[in-house]
Design brief:
With 83 residues, the chain is α+β, with helices and mostly antiparallel strands. The chain is 49% helix and 17% strand. The longest helix has 32 residues, at 8-39.
Amino acid sequence: MENKEITAEWARKTAENILGEKIEKEINMCLDSIKNAVKLNNFSTTVTAYINDLTKQELEKRGFKVTKYTGDQRDGSYSSITW
């Protein structure tokens, strides 16, 4: 793409598509973790990611409680999901 073809509309749409793909991947990762935890008769799971706020909102809309932790250098960031 040539620089003269770059517009604000193009930039906005491109950023939204990338964000949408990222959020969808995060949601699927969390849902897979939830399914695995349920198979083990657990009522919570932990994902090793500091998920996006939009992912958190979607999970909370579905009734899950989500807590994000920044962790430290040794443990890293993670998110806890309970139901």
